[in-house]
Structure formats: C-alpha cells, structure tokens
Amino acid sequence: MAMEAHQIEALIRAAFPDARIEITDLAGDGNHYSAEVIDESFRGLNRVQQQRAVYAALQGKMDGPAGELHALALTTKAPD
After folding, report:
1. What CATH number corresponds to the domain at position 71?
2. Domain range holding 66?
3. pLDDT, mean of residues 72-77
4. pLDDT of residue 23
5. CB neighbours (10 Å) of residue 35?
6. Per DSSP, what are the bridge partners of residue 37?
7. 8 near 23, Cβ under 8 Å?
8. Which H helix or E strand runs over 25?
C-alpha cells in the first residue's frame, strides 16, 4: 500500500512540530519520496543521528518488504 506525501509529512510533523518539511514524490508512484527536514533539534547532531530521528518518526512505515513506504531520500539539517 502506497503512502501520500501529506501522510509522511504528518508523521514527521508530529515528532518535529516546528520543522520546515518538504516532501517530493520522486516517481509519481506513492512509494519513492524525498524529504527535506530542517529543525532546530538537529543542531549538534550528526547526519546519521538526524536521519535516525526522522526514520523513528515514521513509526515503522518503512519496515520490511510489507512497509507502506518503499524509499525515502532524506536531507536533514539545523536552520542556518
């Protein structure tokens, strides 16, 4: 089952309410997205820590072959 961009954004927004979030459907199939998440809580964290936090916010939607979301290319950073 595919996910819609607004569903991905809602999951991320629940964990990062003040973040700037941009979701892009890369293939038009509801399975391949990119997300840019900019949030102050990322300050002082390395890229792996930032991305783990975002993946955790997805609440298992990417887990295993039956996951609702197949691919998510992440860009994360603290605001400039």
Report:
1. 3.30.300.90
2. 5-77
3. 96
4. 97
5. 20
6. 21, 76
7. yes
8. strand 20-25
Supply 15's token pair. 């964990």
**Spatial CB neighbours of 6, under 8 Å, sequence gap ≥ 6:** 23
Question: Is residue 1 pLDDT above 70, yes or no?
Answer: no
Q: Are 70 and 32 in contact (CB under 8 A)?
A: yes
Residues 6+ apart with CB under 8 A from 9: 21, 23
Write down the residue that tokens 């927004």 correspond to.
13
Residue 64 has pLDDT above 80, yes or no: no
CA–centroid distance for 49 within its chain: 13
Instruction: Please state the domain count of the chain.
Output: 1
Distance CA 36, CA 59 (A): 18
Predicted TM-score (pTM) of this structure: 0.89
